[in-house]
Amino acid sequence: MDSNQDQLVIRLKEKIDTVVSLLEKSEEEREKLQKEKVQLTEQVKLKLTAFEELERKYESLKLAKAILGSGENSHDAKIKVNRIVREIDKCIALLNH
User: Fold this and answer.
1) Are 77 and 68 in contact (CB under 8 A)?
2) Is residue 4 classed exposed, middle or buried when 0-12, 13-18 and 19+ CB atoms within 10 A define those classes?
3) How far apart are CA 58 and CA 50, in angstroms?
4) What DSSP line would sit under the chain, residue for residue?
5) What is the dihedral of CA 34, 39, 42, 48, to 10 degrees?
6) pTM of the predicted model, to two decimals?
7) From CA 81, how far away is CA 76, in angstroms rounded?
8) Are 80 and 67 in contact (CB under 8 A)?
């Protein structure tokens, strides 16, 4: 009977060692994934910031193209800008009354 108990204890210790080893590997993997998550989150933030900057530049270019039109020179563009400014001034004057 003693021999059977000894074998049971030995098998139990082996299984416990296996479980502990698996737990340690799982914890290491979790830490690795956590670090990777932080890195990826930072990359996403950087990409989002770059995207927003490019979007702003694109909107500025669209506005500049709309003001300049196709093939017009800067004199015509200045005339358009002055006309827009005058219209805005008229709107402000109407709002003040």
Assistant:
1) yes
2) exposed
3) 12
4) -HHHHHHHHHHHHHHHHHHHHHHHHHHHHHHHHHHHHHHHHHHHHHHHHHHHHHHHHHHHHHHHHHHH-SS--HHHHHHHHHHHHHHHHHHHHHHH-
5) -110
6) 0.53
7) 9
8) yes
- Residue 77: name the closest of 90, 64, 86, 87 by CA: 64
Q: How far apart are CA 23 and CA 17, in angstroms?
A: 10
* Residue ranges per structural domain of the chain: 2-71
List the pLDDT tens digit at each of the 97 positions of the chain.
588 898 999 999 999 999 999 999 999 999 999 999 999 999 999 999 999 999 999 888 888 777 666 555 667 777 888 888 899 888 888 888 7
Kindly report the length of the chain.
97
Task: State both tokens at 29.
Answer: 């993997």
